[in-house]
Write a structure and sequence with these properties.
- The protein is an alpha+beta fold.
- The protein has one domain: Pleckstrin-homology domain (PH domain)/Phosphotyrosine-binding domain (PTB) (PH-domain like), CATH 2.30.29.
- Helix content is about 35%, strand content about 35%.
- It has three helices and nine strands.
- The protein has a seven-stranded antiparallel beta sheet, sandwiched between helices.
- The longest helix has about 30 residues.
- The radius of gyration is 17 Å and the shape is globular.
- It starts with a helix and ends with a helix.
- The model has no long low-confidence stretch (mean pLDDT about 85).
């Protein structure tokens, strides 16, 4: 019984490490495809309005949210076209916490709302510090 628990714990730890390194690799590959000067970039999870309002949140995707010039971009793959947000026209706000995760949204002038969260899994809790750092960078750029 104890041996099974130990093996399960080791397998779980290995899975977490593999996922962490896969996300870091994806982040670096996407960053290499961006030719514009980058003022801020981090890995984020994106949720559509429908997913965000669901009682159990799954993410639509994860990718790189970055700031270049007066725009923020969200890019999910090396070859994909990023979603673009003109920071002078969009509204950015912090959303309510969900299970200790910090969220912010970017609303377009057309009323479309995009939700973002960047969290790192910890041993005992999730860390959303990067979400707050990204929110501050977006707001600072928006008011500049």
């Amino acid at each position: 019984m104890i041996v099974g628990g130990i093996i399960g714990g080791i397998v779980g730890l290995i899975a977490v490490v593999i996922i962490f390194f896969a996300k870091e690799q994806k982040f670096n590959k996407i960053l290499r495809t961006i030719k514009d000067p980058i003022e801020y970039a981090a890995l984020y999870h994106y949720a559509s309005f429908k997913r965000y309002k669901a009682s159990f949140k799954f993410f639509d995707s994860y990718g790189v949210l970055y700031i270049s010039g007066n725009n923020a971009y969200y890019k999910t793959s090396e070859t994909g076209t990023p979603i673009s947000f003109n920071l002078k026209e969009c509204t950015i706000q912090q959303e309510a916490d969900w299970r200790m995760l910090k969220w912010f949204s970017i609303s377009t002038p057309a009323g479309e709302k995009f939700y973002f969260d960047s969290h790192k899994m910890g041993a005992f809790k999730n860390n959303s510090d990067e979400t707050l750092k990204g929110l501050a960078a977006l707001k600072a750029k928006q008011s500049a």
